[in-house]
């Protein structure tokens, strides 16, 4: 692509930064081995909101590049489907720090708001 009518390049640093931020915020680690990451952009899972007490989880096949979403309990009709964007076994402070640093939000899910 060439420059626009004002001579500006078609994509500037801000455009690439926004693109990278959106991609990074919507990828999931699907590595079966915790010693390295394999990230995937999963269209459907990208629409799931976060909860530190999620009602769904990603299930990664250890032998093929397949991923499924599994419910962790019965989910009433109309309740949003949620995933934990960070390891749920971390302390509240660690979860909140990772969410703030990696996803730019302060978690207010029911698990974080309980004393």
Low-confidence stretches: none
> What is the C-alpha radius of gyration, as a whole number of Å?
18 Å
Shape label:
globular
Write the element-wise H/E pattern from the N-terminal end onward: HEEEEEEHH
Main β-sheet description:
2 strands, antiparallel
The percent range for helix content is 25-40%
- Give me the count of strands: 6
Strands of the widest sheet, in order across it, are: 1-2
How much strand? 15-25%
Average pLDDT metric: 83
Structural class: alpha+beta
Give the termini distance in whole angstroms. 54 Å
Number of helices: 3
Describe this structure as you would to a colleague:
The chain is α+β, with helices and mostly antiparallel strands. It contains three helices and six strands. It has helices at about 15-25, 90-105, 110-115, and strands at about 25-30, 40, 50, 55-60, 65-70, 80-85. The strands form three sheets. It has a two-stranded antiparallel ribbon with strand order 1-2. It has a two-stranded parallel sheet with strand order 3-6. The longest helix is centred in the first third of the chain and has 13 residues, at about 15-25. It is globular and about 55 Å long. About 10% of the residues are buried.
Summarize the structure.
The chain is an alpha+beta fold and 115 residues long. It is built from three helices and six strands. Strand 4 and strand 5 (67-71) form a beta hairpin.
């Amino acid at each position: 692509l060439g420059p626009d009518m004002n001579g500006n390049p078609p994509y500037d640093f801000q455009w690439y930064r926004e693109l990278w931020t959106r991609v990074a915020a919507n990828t999931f680690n699907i590595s079966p081995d915790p010693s390295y990451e394999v990230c995937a952009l999963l269209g459907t899972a990208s629409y799931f909101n976060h909860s530190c007490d999620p009602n769904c989880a990603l299930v990664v096949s250890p032998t093929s590049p397949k991923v499924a979403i599994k419910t962790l309990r019965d989910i009433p009709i109309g309740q949003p489907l949620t995933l934990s964007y960070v390891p749920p076994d971390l302390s509240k402070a660690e979860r909140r720090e990772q969410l703030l640093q990696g996803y730019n939000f302060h978690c207010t899910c029911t698990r974080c708001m309980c004393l």
